[in-house]
Amino acid sequence: MKSKSFSQRCYDLLKKVPKGKITTYKLLAHALGTKAYRAVGNAMNKNPYPGICGVHKKEIPCHRVVKSNGEVGGFALGTKKKIALLGEEGIKIKNRKIENFEKFLHKF
DNA sequence: GCTTTGACACTAA
DNA sequence: CTTAGTGCCAAAG
């Protein structure tokens, strides 16, 4: 078996999130079988693909990862950019909070 | 191999 | 509601 790095697993799991849905660092980490909420974010920060998901395949929908309290969290290209991208997926943000957060929340 | 950093989570005040 | 403190884990220096 190929033991991929923790970050690699995060990306892979993240790619499983359907479009128009989001997940949280906590759920993501929990799905990986760990409590490394921060490590997940760390992996994204060092992000191999700062490009937004789209055209080609290797892009990672980093903008679909949000905080557990409903905030969008951070983003390498800027939180505003992240909000904009989420808006494109049909997710609205209100005062830095996601509307119907639980509704868009995808569980593994 | 220890120290520092960080796109977090949770609890207490 | 906000602020502060603690815990957690992985990657980089």
Characterization of this structure:
The structure is a single chain. With about 110 residues, the chain is mainly alpha-helical. It has one domain (about 5-105): Orthogonal Bundle (Arc Repressor Mutant, subunit A). Helix content is about 35%, strand content about 5%. The chain contains five helices and four strands; from the N terminus they run αβααβαββα. The protein has helices at about 5-15, 25-30, 35-45, 80-90, 100-105; strands spanning about 25, 65, 95, 95-100. Helix 1 (about 5-15) crosses helix 3 (about 35-45) and helix 2 (about 25-30) packs across helix 3 (about 35-45). The radius of gyration is 13 Å and the shape is globular. About 30% of the residues are buried. It binds a DNA duplex (13 and 13 nucleotides) through helix 2, helix 3 and strand 2.
Name some characteristics of this structure.
5 helices, 37% helix, Arc Repressor Mutant, subunit A, DNA-binding, two-stranded antiparallel ribbon, 108 residues, two-stranded parallel ribbon, 7% strand, mainly alpha, globular
Task: Give a short account of the largest sheet.
Answer: 2 strands, parallel
- C-alpha Rg (nearest Å): 13 Å
Q: In percent, how helical is the residue content?
A: 25-40%
The gross shape turns out to be globular
Structurally, the number of domains stands at 1
- How many β strands by DSSP? 4
In percent, how much strand structure appears in the residues? 5-15%
CATH architecture: Orthogonal Bundle
Cα distance, first to last residue? 22 Å
Give me the number of helical elements: 5
Do you know the CATH topology? Arc Repressor Mutant, subunit A
CATH class: Mainly Alpha
Low-confidence stretches: none
The ordered string of helix (H) and strand (E) elements is HEHHEHEEH
CATH superfamily: Winged helix-like DNA-binding domain superfamily/Winged helix DNA-binding domain
Structural class from helices and strands?
Answer: mainly alpha
Q: Give the overall average pLDDT.
A: 87
Question: Order of strands side by side in the largest beta sheet?
Answer: 1-2
